[in-house]
Amino acid sequence: MADPSPLPAGSLRLLVAEDEPHIRRILDTILDGAGFQVDMVADGEKALEAVQGDRPYALLILDLVLPGATGLEVLREVRRLPSRRHLPVVILTAKGEDIDRETAFTFGADAFMTKPFSPRKLLKQVDELIAER
Known about the structure:
This protein has a single domain, classed as Response regulator (Rossmann fold, 3-Layer(aba) Sandwich), CATH 3.40.50. The chain has 5 helices and 5 strands, in the order E-H-E-H-E-H-E-H-E-H. It has helices spanning 21-33, 44-52, 71-80, 98-107, 119-132; strands at residues 13-17, 37-41, 59-62, 89-93, 111-114. Strands 2-1-3-4-5 form a 5-stranded parallel sheet, with helices on both faces. Helix 1 (21-33) links the parallel strand 1 (13-17) and strand 2. The protein is globular and about 30 Å long. The two termini are 25 Å apart.
C-alpha cells in the first residue's frame, strides 16, 4: 500500500530547536522541501522565547540536549502555556534509552524519534500530528 500523500503544508510554520548546525541544515532542507516555513533555534532559551512569542506554530521539533534550557524544560513550559498546550511536539534526539523515551512522554511529547532518523518517517510523523490537531 502506498503512503498517503503528505498534507499540503502551505503556510504552516514549524519551530525546530536543535543545537547541531549540520542537523539544523538537514532538517531545514527536509521541512522546507515539504513546503513548511521553518524557524530554527540553536538553544533552549531561544526555543522558550519563540514558544512564548506571538508566532503561530503548527508543530515543534525538539532535541533533548540543548544549551541553556534543556529540551525537557522547553517541553514542560510548552505544556504549561494555555496558548501552546496543544502544540504537537516531536522529540528528535540522540538519547534513545527507554528512560529518555518514557520521560519525554511523561513531560507531554507527542512523538519520539532517535538520530539518525529517516527523513521520510519524520515527515510522515509531522504530517500525522498536524492532521490530528
